[in-house]
Amino acid sequence: MAPIEDHALIGDMHTAALIRRDGALNWLCLPQFDSPAVFAALLGNDDHGSWTVSPTPASDSASSPRADRRRYRGDSLILEQEWDAQDGTVRVIDFMPPRQLPATPNTPVVIRIVEGIAGRVRMRSSLRARFAYGRVRPWLHQTTTESTLRTTAVAGPDSLWLDTPAFSTLDHPAEHDFAVAAGERITFALTWQPSHLASPEVPDPEDSLALTEHFWSDWVSQCTYQGPYREAVVRSLITLKALTYAPTGGIVAAPTTSLPEDIGGERNWDYRYTWLRDAAITLSSLLRTGYREEAQAWREWLLRAVAGDPENLQIMYTITGQRELTESTLDWLPGYEGSQPVRVGNGAAGQLQLDVYGEVVEALHLAHMTGLTRNDHAHHLQLRLIEYLEQHWQEPDEGIWEVRGPRRHFVHSKVMAWVAVDRTIKLIEQSPADGPLERWRELRDTIHRDVCEKGYDPERNTFTQYYGGRELDASLLLIPQVGFLPPDDKRVIGTIETIQRELSTEDGFVLRYPTHDNEGNNVDGLSGHEGAFLACSFWLADDLAMIGRVQEARELFDRLLSLRNDVGLLAEEWDPRLKRQVGNFPQAFSHVPLIDTALRLTAAACAGVVSGSDGRENDFGVPDQTDTRTATLAGAAR
Known about the structure:
single chain; Beta-galactosidase, Chain A, domain 5; Glycosyltransferase; 14-stranded antiparallel sheet; 23 strands
């Protein structure tokens, strides 16, 4: 099976597809991100659903050839793959027209344009639609006009309509053998709609291509970042936009399920939902790069999802804000490289993760600081969340990493509870919002003192994963970034250096936490190991810059950028043993910190940092007890 990083992403802000270098579209859920997959070969084989458009395989080869080159067309989500075949060169252009455009269908459409570059190349389109995650084979039939062959696939409530001028020479109705010469373009358009509706109109691929290219060009032009990492930042922003469900503003963590964190193991999860934590930090990145409309849409999604029940805040919701995410397994799918089980739904939705309250309040605070349209409901929600935390912050929880082991007093959770209270105090101080200010100031001090007394190991000069433990946790790297302690505090520096020494791989990337104790026993309720968590590695680069080791931070950032695949995409983790990406793909929680680190390093360069003989900055530039992201935003607003 092809490596995870062998895939590229296309999408229409309702759903997204993954396409391999051999021209196989092997993952697509229709009509939206969390719908059942119509093409699920990513978690099985071609018979579980795939659509390949590529040069005809050689007679002695059963597999399609890999593209020699691929790229996105400029700053867009239009994929171009090129093959140098024996008889010429051919390009396949893949994209999904955004459904919100006035001249495009309000239904999912995948368009594939085959363009002859040189010579005359024999091509094949092989469509194997399988509804219900590869389980249901549809009924196929064809109709023709003078210029178009239409193949219809129907199963239960779903239908697909494939339109092309390439008349098939094969017996199978969903396969087309054809040739394309230099200067010729052969188009394929695949439309989904409910099966009970009348047949859809035939899309115009060329008009859709022009409209889609204009959409992305216009959207990217709003980006305010112009620093040295612009290419990486823009590609990450495009990816985040592609992971946004346009009707509601909800942002999925990834468009896939069950891509393993441990190849062949059980660490496989469904990420096609909106994690409040991921979406909150995404809002920060969008605001800092000029995308206020997307940030405001996310805030409105949050208010709708949480409305009326903030005391029972879930860590994740569906893209429409629904709470029910019952987890089940798809036994008929063998899993990516045998990694089972294949899961849909996510049982972690019922976990208690107190840090989420801090992330949500932080997001609302950033929205307020940057002048998003005032929303009194947002202020009311923030106050209600603090009222809940005031009664529950001392409880153990499952923590940021959703461990399926015992609840503990995780240090990061307590720190983020402090963040929630701190930002709410600032809201009351800076706006007409009302609340028990002195009581909450005392609560803020109490949480801070509790963390410093119970979550810090003075012998090793480091904060620990949970109260009374000795284990480390990469989430501790966020302590200076959220302003809990200033970066020049010896406890912060000690924590950064200990994590760098004890949680890093040989190539300098960071693990989330030790998955096994010194005796080799599993500590998180799951078997196997996992790779380096890319978000944590970006956090380390941030911290190194904050404590003055800017050159080291840049070097780590450059190594992280080198892990992106050839079209700039990152999964959740990096396997240091296999030297490959692992986990769901592409992962918002990797692309967001990429943007944040690029902004931090660019700001450090613009500030003209002066280093002392020990390599540390003489001026850290971060005020005590102030969130560095908020400080950056305030500076940008001025």
